[in-house]
Specification:
homodimer; 36% helix; alpha/beta; globular; Rossmann fold
């Protein structure tokens, strides 16, 4: 952290992607960490991962924001207790039931509001186009359009740009990048289902485990089961 | 309300502009009302106005969402108790202290999430470009860019369009339109400062009073003072 560096808000869920994104942002920016609680089943564990990551990166400017109205609005198995979390089907190109409608727009709107107040000029978000199982709000064109919304909707002297440094990486590439940058991957949490031992079978665990397997590296997290994903 | 009509989410703050916008939307759409509590001083009174308006329009599909994180993020006299609400200066072209950074993006993001879940194809918002005292997120280009974000960030079969039917109207024109449509203007609330008798001197009261004066019509609300604005 260098006070001459420009300030960046990093969206840190507590997962692998946001950890590696923070490690990339850390090379060029002074970091501020934003965590969103949108009512997901594993929020308690993700919040802990967020705090562990902030400590590890030495980030003191942190904000936790409750967006649990997304749970009330419903429509997603991540937040609606009435919907089952589907087991992973990595070949499925349909939009999965864990999709929270327009979630990233809600997250980015909060991030821009905070960035404008604290004088940050960059937003880093660990969105991944290929591995995101088809979430429409993880695609590059979504972020490009959102940059135009920021320019049009903030003060004339505010200049905030969204950075998606891992958007074109595979999960294996993200993991290798994290290892190269000494990112604290052991302090992250990815499972959509469980708060203590990762289930190993939800979409998020499957993508993560397959990524480590393809990278030829061991995942430091505990799992209830470690299927081999090809 | 006709079940053949397409469904629209109307953003209803409880003020004059959202009331007239709802009256316009009501001619062509089945309405669902969304109210946001972003921690403004007058939320209690605005919420009452929202409920009165929903009853008057016969709208049963209503959602109240708490976005008080905007208050914690601060930067606005509307939500920050440490900042004074400035008295009106209608000639001032600077962005006023009541500006909540990127507020409309937060509001629209919530509205799109809800619209996608309930199957609405339109969002109506009573933004006004000219009378908005220079809020950047009230300009037509902001909404045009947000429409692109909606297209890019929602499911392929979701088609939601933002409608800003009063954006180019003066306050006097909005009031006349409301009267023409029998909109319940007596049930609205506009004051940024007070919960019972409108102050008459904040930006919002000044714009409203001047609008009624220019329209040559009496404002049905009680005011502590009714300055003549020219």
């Amino acid at each position: 952290m260098n006070s001459i560096q420009p300030k960046a808000v990093v969206l840190v869920s507590g997962g692998l992607d946001s950890c590696v994104t923070a490690a990339i942002a850390n090379r060029t920016h002074q970091l501020a960490f934003l965590h969103l609680n949108y009512g997901q089943r594993t929020e308690q564990r993700e919040r802990q991962a967020f705090e562990d990551l902030a400590r590890d990166f030495g980030v003191t400017e942190c904000l936790n924001v409750d967006v649990t109205h997304l749970a009330r609005i419903g429509g997603s198995s991540l937040t609606d207790p009435g919907m089952a979390v589907t087991e992973a089907d990595l070949e499925n190109k349909e939009i999965p039931s864990s999709y929270v409608p327009f979630r990233n727009a809600n997250i980015l709107a909060v991030a821009v509001s905070w960035a404008e107040v604290i004088g940050a000029t960059a937003l880093f978000i660990g969105a991944v186009a290929e591995d995101s199982s088809g979430y429409p709000d993880c695609r590059p064109e979504f972020f490009e359009h959102f940059n135009h919304v920021i320019d049009a909707g903030t003060k004339p002297d505010t200049h905030i740009r969204i950075h998606t440094p891992i958007i074109h990486m595979s999960k294996a590439e993200i993991i290798k990048t994290g290892i190269d940058l000494n990112a604290p991957l052991d302090q992250t949490w990815s499972c959509y289902q469980s708060n203590d031992v990762a289930c190993g079978v939800c979409d998020s665990c499957a993508l993560r485990l397959r990524g480590f397997q393809r990278a030829g590296l061991p995942d430091p997290l505990p799992y209830a089961t470690r299927p081999v994903y090809t």
